[in-house]
Please model this.
Amino acid sequence: MKKLIVAAAIVLGTISSFATPHVAPIENNIVVGVQDEYTEVALDALPDAVKSTITNSFPGAKLEKAYVNENKEYKLEISMSEKTYTVYTDAEGIVIKK
Model:
């Protein structure tokens, strides 16, 4: 009888540990889009310092498009060896981020 009670306790303990519901963690992926407030400008309207930065810092690069924001920061799309890159400069031609 003692063995029967111990066996029942073991079985009930084992069953109750498997009866615990498994809750999958919820992942919150929030994607925030940053809106560029750049307006496109003609390539010949770029300051000479910006043009010389592209030719000196990125030899062989071709300037495809240029954009400017209200802070006179330039977003430049350049292409080199069949790849396109975006370069950011200020009005003095100093690269701010690539």
